[in-house]
Design brief:
- By secondary structure, the chain is α/β, with parallel strands linked by helices.
- The protein folds into two domains: about 1-195, YjeF N-terminal domain (Rossmann fold, 3-Layer(aba) Sandwich), CATH 3.40.50.10260; about 200-480, 3-Layer(aba) Sandwich (UDP-N-acetylmuramoyl-L-alanine:D-glutamate ligase).
- It contains 18 helices and 17 strands.
- It has helices spanning about 5-20, 25-45, 60-75, 90, 115-125, 190, 200-205, 235-245, 255-265, 285-290, 310-320, 330-340, 355-365, 370-375, 375-385, 420-435, 440-455, 470-480; strands spanning about 1-5, 50-55, 75-80, 95-100, 130, 155-160, 175-180, 195, 220-225, 250-255, 270-275, 300, 325-330, 350-355, 390, 395-400, 405-410.
- The strands form two sheets. The chain has an eleven-stranded mixed β-sheet with strand order 1-8-17-16-15-14-13-12-9-10-11, with helices on both faces. The chain has a six-stranded parallel β-sheet with strand order 3-2-4-5-6-7, covered by helices on one side.
- Helix 8 (about 235-245) links the parallel strand 9 and strand 10.
- The protein is elongated and about 80 Å long.
- The two termini are about 20 Å apart.
């Protein structure tokens, strides 16, 4: 599903009004009707309810005034608070519902003092809050909090979702997002060519690779895995299992002896090639031993749990310079590359990187807080500069394409904040690539179903208790149509 910036939405509205002849007042009345509907849904079990509607100076405030009139027509007591008004906290505490129509999508600077006081009063009230289009104080395009912002329980947005609703920290303020129709033709989005999307359930299933009836393991690709070390053998097992669970035909783990023994115990379907090691880790001799196999694979995983030292970095460098096979780089492979980022310029095949903010900090030189304040921009810039699909992990993960497109993944929860879950994600992405899915789409699918598996796991376990291996059993469940 495509999502739009503030400028793109203004252009869509301009086309609807000026070219298609839709009166702007009709759009405002339709928007107000949708907000009113959700207000009535919340108030239906409350006797003699009252609603406070906070209205700003622009179109958002106009929507709020129209909501007030429509609620009054339904017999609901309403009080309109103008953005220049002052109000006592005790007065707000007396209402049953707050409608936030202060600022809307056009905000470009920090909120002024009086509006800030109103926003703080709304948040301090602990009342149920419905925001119109976007919570006041959230930047529509970046999700930045512009000084302060309303904490909504629901956000009713119109026609198309707005980018800032899904980017942190704005995403923490929106509550339940409801996208409502206001009689703007859906195909107008093609006129503004948005580069950002989120994935809906039906879209995700439509992107899954087709599995033909007449097929064999070669039909679904070979994944070559370079992962694990004597101290972290489980990383390889998790990645291998995840690749199989997403549909790869053959998974071959090229691993050191300590890792092979763990794989043999846990995952019988994985083929192993035991490579020479140095102190239980990869080294240049590991690469020399397996060199002839590298370009026979469909995709290569490099990095989960391999450790960090000079020998490992040399191993990673040799792999990257030699491979003509698509690669998924994670964890310690990214550490090695951060010491020699010019390696990206030598790549001969499509590549996906999957850093968390700390790893991205090492790759870019940016501080972690800078990255967290601009995850989409950070991922886009890195993808474009280095010609790699960049999956930047966060509560809402950003998947950026070198051509300027990016996806915001909104599945998952904080149960994924645990060791090993990234290894599963890496394996899932590789599994999709092995089946012929392009690296960008494979990364989107991997993040989406990885998050869905976590959500499913939390139905029977708590967010505290889910571990990476729980996801493996649930991947086939969430991928079943």
């Amino acid at each position: 599903m495509k999502i739009v910036t503030s400028a793109q939405m203004r252009e869509i509205e301009r086309i609807a009004i000026e070219e298609l002849g839709t009166p702007s007042i009709v759009l405002m009345e339709n928007a107000a009707a949708q907000v009113t509907k959700h207000c009535l849904n919340y108030l239906e079990k409350i006797n003699n309810p009252s609603v406070f509607i906070f209205c700003g100076p622009g179109n958002n405030g106009g929507d709020g005034l129209a909501v007030s009139r429509q609620l009054q027509c339904k017999g609901i007591e309403t009080k309109v608070i103008n953005y220049k008004d002052s109000i006592k906290q005790s007065d707000i505490d007396a209402c049953d519902l707050i409608v936030d129509a202060l600022l809307g999508t056009g905000i470009s600077r920090d909120v002024d003092t009086n509006v800030k006081q109103l926003i703080e009063a709304i948040n301090n009230s602990k009342k149920y809050v419905i925001s119109v289009d976007i919570p006041s104080g959230i930047h529509c395009d970046t999700g930045h909090v512009m000084g302060c912002a309303v904490k909504a329980d629901e956000t009713i947005t119109f026609c198309y979702p707005k980018t800032g609703l899904y980017l942190y920290p704005g995403a923490e303020h929106v509550g339940i997002i409801r996208v409502e129709d206001i009689s703007i033709p859906k195909n107008l989005i093609d006129r503004v060519n948005p580069k950002t999307e989120i994935l809906a359930d039906n879209e995700a299933f439509n992107l899954l690779p087709v599995r033909k009836e007449r097929s064999n393991k070669g039909s679904f690709g070979k994944v070559l895995v370079f992962a694990g070390s004597k101290e972290m053998p489980g990383a390889a097992s998790l990645a291998c299992s995840a690749a199989y669970m997403t549909g790869a035909g053959l998974v071959c783990a090229c691993v050191v002896p300590d890792v092979a023994s763990v794989i043999h115990h846990w995952q019988r379907e994985v083929v192993t090639r035991i490579v020479p090691d140095k102190n239980g880790m990869y080294c240049k001799e590991s690469f020399d031993y397996i060199k002839e196999e590298i370009n026979k694979a469909s995709v290569i995983i490099i990095g989960p749990g391999i450790g960090r030292n000079i020998d490992i970095s040399e191993f990673v460098y040799e792999l990257l310079k030699f491979s003509k096979t698509p690669m998924v780089l994670d964890a310690d492979a990214l550490f090695a590359i951060s010491e020699n980022s010019s390696l990206f310029k030598t790549l001969k095949a499509p590549c996906v990187i999957t850093p968390h903010p700390g790893e991205m900090s090492r790759l870019t030189g940016l501080q972690i807080n800078e990255i967290l304040e601009n995850t989409s921009g950070t991922a886009l810039n890195f993808a474009n500069k280095n010609n790699v699909v960049t999956l930047l992990k966060d509560a809402h993960t950003i998947i950026a394409n070198p051509n300027g497109e990016y996806n915001i993944n909104i599945t998952g929860n904080n149960s994924l904040s645990k060791a090993g879950t990234g290894d599963v994600l890496t394996g899932m992405i590789a599994g999709f690539i092995a089946q012929g899915v392009d690296t960008y789409t494979a990364s989107i699918l991997g993040a989406y179903f990885h998050g869905k598996a976590a959500e499913k796991a939390c139905l029977t376990k708590s967010n505290y208790s889910v571990i990476a291996s729980d996801l493996l059993d649930l991947i086939p469940v969430v991928m079943k149509k």
